[in-house]
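Heme chaperone HemW structure dump, as promised
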Amino acid sequence: MPAQPDGDVPPLDGGLPAAAIARAGRDTFSAYVHVPYCRVRCGYCDFNTYTADELGPGANRADYRDQLSHEIALSRDVVAGTGLEGRAFDTVFFGGGTPTLLPAQTLAGVLGDLRAGIGLAAGAEVTTEANPDSVDAEYLQMLADAGFTRVSFGMQSAVPHVLRTLDRTHDPARIGEVVQAARAAGLGVSLDLIYGTPGESLSDWRTSLESVLEHRPDHVSAYSLIVEPGTRMGMQVRRGELPMPDEDDLAEKYELADEILAEAGLGWYEVSNFSTGDGTRCEHNLAYWRNADWWGYGPGAHSHVGGVRWWNAKHPRAWADRLGRGASPAVGRELLDDDTRALEDLMLAARIDGEFPLDRLQESARPHISRMLADGLLAPRTLVEKRIHLTLRGRLLADGIVRTLSDHLV
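structure tokens r here:
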């Protein structure tokens, strides 16, 4: 269970240092809104989320809209006079938690505050995460009317016993209903899957993938389950109550996902993400992977502008208390040096097909690139386009590729 911090760090002024202003990009600018509420805590979840019982007094959903509005106003004041005002948000993402536990009017109101306070670019991508059992047709239509453009449903699996292991509460049959309702409202649809759940067979995983295709989503995310030590599932694994799959099992499931999704026209563009084309990629996540600028709102939200990263008080009560005192909700920040930024660029961009240019590597990387080509980790067009293109095998070994190349950055 998340804990209320014992103490609070001295308040920051909330301002941006000159170095951040000077290095801030003029391209994609994104907003992330964290909604930390969940009806049930899933056993594998290590995110900054809380059930009603965990929140305690001083933090509740009813006040959340006003608190977010206050934080958005503070961010507007921070950028005023810096030369960064006038940058509108190109992407907005509501994540959690379960954002759709809040009334649709609340999410619409927060989006309106972002539009009024900072601005939304023409054609902005606006996404919310949703559990299949937390929305209906009326709710989704209200989101679309407010300016939301896509919804990402936490499907995770189509197999009941896998969902039970994950502590997911929705009926798999519900997916088809909400996907149809989202499409009727004019929203783009992404489905999130998890593979590698204890007890999940290859046949189970195939069932989930085939179920996904029945719903014809624009976008699919397929993530390998990571079990953190402090979670309930982590303790079950440590006690030997749940068997974790081995690396070969995970690789086989990833290969199956790539095969089935590609045959259906969902091509990979990032190691764990597949879409029907450029227009259906998640531009918000691409902004993260490109180390663009983004502003995070809500408890525990992180932000990044011009190489400065800062983060808010984690517990909703501590976050709300700071806002109530007129203080910045941020409790820490760091200025990333050029070497750190270059390393992060490699770690993130190498996972995107054709994103990382070879000219950001020293000449000393050439033998390693040649070896990776010979070993079938990089596609031949890597040399033609002078950008990293991972093969299927390379995607499975992406972390090792990054480690090798990290010693040869310009």
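Confidence is low (pLDDT under 50) at residues 1-11.
lmk if u need the other ones
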